[in-house]
């Protein structure tokens, strides 16, 4: 991207969840379900004296993509780190369940999930974890009929049980600012020590889990500039490709064979990860 | 650091439930796959167990790591492939005692999230294909490890015992992330059931199908084994009565009323009016 393009392009990551959903749906088709005026906030946060948000940080946007029935589930990373509580989690799982139901009665509803999330909201712990399991179940159900496209644009990235959800998607799109990983850096440092993982070393963290590294390691399907137009076009391209012949999550042979070639006596290095997966996947 | 004590419960219960079975060769030592029987019909039993010699040093105490995630996926998908041509869909029993997912640099670098997705997808696909999937929680069932090994089951059964727990994160790390002390976290858990670590609080959320008392969870006797076997058979029969192989049975308890309410509201507004 040159300077002129940089100035002209509309940033995707700078948009909030609601605007992101609107930008991805066909123009003028967005209709929000259980919006902020429905005031379905988290009762669990309120009981702990934590400020709530009227949409619990998840936007459910119905509309169309290339004229077909669609739903965009956009997580607001600015609220509680995009963490999944009971209400927000049920919004995502419930919408995906309805999309699958549509498909079973002949309506080809497809889904997009915008992952800006640290994973389970620890103030709702087990209800967040349960909701995430239901999100996993719903993605695996729906992706039999239509592609489920995941996008992690940043700045929060995608962690915890929701990184598993991202890895279940038919296609996953990232930007350079995104990170996708199971365990947040702080938690690894807490559990394994600072020599294993230094949570304050940002270049190191991006070198392991950043969007560019994931792209070169074949763990995502597209690596895009931070541009609304690029995001909307890639999303439509993936929807046009339909359900992949085999989802990445179903390639256990290739992954096991690749992991067998890892020298685990030394610590992991980004260049080695790329080499092993570029050959094995 | 957490989780220094290895648990043998997964291996113990797996062996007890499959007295005539042997672990299938070709799997890593940390993933034990046994083709046994449930009520006289073939069933596959799967457990993740500690392996002190695990090639991946952060996955030696029974954690679900990279290899474990993908090996679980393989164990489930091989079972599906073997049954695909026939009419019978073998039950799959996940014996769950998983201390956590593996936390480490190698794990993040090689995409442990993708490995756990491999396992979760396999269990979910097996359930959707008609395999009755039962999760039997005999010890710890923590976070990402449970998401990979058991949380996609049609039915979840847990032993009613203080060593049995389901949670999203260990206490020390959860305290750090939420900017609280461990003591504050424990105090909150007293009044907020989803934050608690004990299995009875978890049971109050309605996600378990049964909470099952046993006398000796570490060394099950004949009575304990018979009780668990009966419960697995009852779960199997209950699953076969389901119209659809989904997770709807986990909804409906008062503690999770919003999970139901959100779904009802979504359904009511799913189609545009007028």
Architecture overview:
The complex is a heterodimer of chains A (281) and B (274). In chain A, 43% of the residues lie in helices and 13% in strands. Chain A is an alpha/beta fold. Chain A has a single domain, classed as Alpha-Beta Complex (2-enoyl-CoA Hydratase, Chain A, domain 1). In chain A, β3 (68-75), α4 and β4 (110-114) form a beta-alpha-beta unit. The mean pLDDT of chain A is 96. In chain B, α2 packs parallel to α4 (112-128) and α6 (171-177) packs across α7. Helices cover 40% and strands 16% of the residues of chain B. Chain B has helices at 9-17, 66-83, 105-109, 112-128, 143-148, 171-177, 182-191, 199-203, 222-240, 257-269; strands spanning 31-38, 41-48, 92-98, 133-142, 155-159, 165-167, 210-212. Chain B is built from ten helices and seven strands.
List key phrases describing it.
heterodimer, A: 281 residues, alpha/beta, 2-enoyl-CoA Hydratase, Chain A, domain 1, 7-stranded mixed beta sheet, 13% strand, globular, B: 274 residues, 7 strands
How are the SSEs ordered, and which strands pair?
The complex is a heterodimer of chains A (281) and B (274).
Chain A lengths: L2 H6 L8 H8 L6 E3 L9 H5 L10 E8 L2 E8 L10 H19 L5 E5 L10 H18 L5 E5 L8 H8 L2 E5 L9 H8 L9 H8 L1 H6 L5 E3 L3 H14 L10 H9 L9 H11 L1
Parallel strand pairs in A: 3-4, 4-5, 5-6, 6-7
Antiparallel strand pairs in A: 1-2, 2-3
Chain B lengths: L8 H9 L13 E8 L2 E8 L17 H18 L8 E7 L6 H5 L2 H17 L4 E10 H6 L6 E5 L5 E3 L3 H7 L4 H10 L7 H5 L6 E3 L9 H19 L16 H13 L5
Parallel strand pairs in B: 2-3, 3-4, 4-5, 4-6, 5-7
Antiparallel strand pairs in B: 1-2
Uncertain residue segments of chain A: none
Structural class of chain B: alpha/beta
Order of helices and strands of chain B: HEEHEHHEHEEHHHEHH
What is the name of the CATH class of chain A?
Answer: Alpha Beta
What is CATH's topology name of chain B? 2-enoyl-CoA Hydratase, Chain A, domain 1
User: Which term fits the overall shape of chain B?
Assistant: globular
Terminal CA distance of chain B reads 59 Å
Uncertain stretches of chain B? none
Q: What name does the CATH topology of chain A carry? A: 2-enoyl-CoA Hydratase, Chain A, domain 1
| SSE-based structural type of chain A | alpha/beta
Largest sheet of chain A: 7 strands, mixed
For this structure, what is the CATH homologous superfamily of chain B? 2-enoyl-CoA Hydratase, Chain A, domain 1
């Amino acid at each position: 991207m040159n300077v002129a393009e940089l100035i002209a392009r509309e940033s995707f990551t700078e948009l909030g969840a609601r605007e992101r959903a609107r930008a991805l749906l066909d123009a003028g088709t967005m209709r929000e379900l259980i919006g902020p005026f429905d005031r379905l906030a988290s009762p669990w946060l309120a009981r702990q004296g934590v400020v709530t948000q009227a949409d619990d940080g998840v936007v459910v946007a119905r509309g169309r993509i290339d004229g077909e029935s669609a739903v965009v589930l956009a997580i607001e990373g600015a609220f509680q780190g995009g963490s999944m509580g009971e209400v927000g989690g049920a919004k995502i799982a419930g919408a995906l369940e309805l999309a699958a139901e549509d498909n079973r009665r002949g309506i080809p509803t497809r889904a997009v999930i915008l992952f800006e999330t640290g994973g389970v909201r620890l103030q709702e712990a087990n209800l967040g974890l349960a909701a995430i399991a239901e999100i996993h179940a719903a993605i695996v159900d729906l992706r039999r009929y239509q592609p489920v496209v995941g996008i992690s644009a940043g700045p929060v990235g995608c962690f915890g049980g929701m990184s598993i959800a991202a890895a279940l998607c038919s296609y996953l799109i990232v930007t350079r600012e995104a990170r996708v990983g199971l365990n947040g850096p702080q938690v690894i440092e807490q559990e394994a020590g600072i020599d294993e993982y230094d949570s304050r070393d940002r270049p190191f963290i991006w070198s392991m889990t950043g969007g560019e590294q994931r792209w070169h390691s074949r763990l995502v399907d597209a690596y895009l500039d931070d541009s609304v137009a690029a995001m909307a076009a890639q999303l439509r391209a993936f929807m046009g490709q339909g359900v992949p012949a085999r989802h990445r999550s179903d390639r256990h042979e290739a992954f096991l064979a690749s992991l067998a070639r890892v020298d685990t006596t030394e610590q992991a290095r980004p260049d080695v990860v790329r080499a092993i997966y570029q050959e094995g996947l | 650091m957490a989780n220094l004590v290895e648990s043998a419960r997964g291996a113990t219960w797996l062996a007890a439930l499959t007295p005539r079975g042997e672990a299938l060769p070709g799997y890593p030592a940390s993933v034990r796959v046994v083709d046994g029987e449930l009520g006289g019909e073939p069933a596959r039993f799967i457990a993740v167990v500690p392996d002190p010699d695990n090639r991946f040093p952060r996955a030696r105490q029974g954690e679900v790591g990279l290899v474990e995630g993908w090996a679980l996926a393989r164990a489930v998908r091989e079972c599906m492939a073997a049954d695909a041509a026939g009419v019978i869909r073998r039950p799959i029993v996940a014996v769950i005692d998983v201390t956590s997912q593996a936390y480490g640099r190698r794990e993040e670098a090689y995409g442990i999230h993708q490995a756990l997705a491999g396992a979760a997808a396999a269990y979910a696909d097996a359930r959707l294909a008609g395999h009755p999937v039962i999760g039997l929680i005999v010890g710890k069932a923590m976070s990402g490890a449970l998401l990979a090994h058991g949380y996609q089951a049609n039915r979840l059964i847990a032993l009613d015992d203080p060593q049995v727990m389901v949670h999203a994160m260990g206490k020390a790390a959860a305290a750090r992330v939420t900017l609280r002390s461990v003591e504050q976290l424990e105090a909150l858990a007293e009044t907020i059931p989803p934050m608690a670590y004990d299995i009875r609080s978890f049971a109050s959320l309605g996600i378990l199908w049964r909470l099952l008392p046993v006398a000796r969870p570490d060394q099950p006797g004949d009575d304990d084994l018979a009780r668990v076997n009966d419960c697995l058979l009852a779960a199997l029969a209950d699953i076969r009565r389901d119209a659809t192989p989904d997770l709807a049975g986990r909804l409906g308890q008062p503690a999770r009323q919003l999970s139901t309410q959100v779904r009802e509201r979504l359904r009511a507004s799913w189609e545009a009016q007028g």
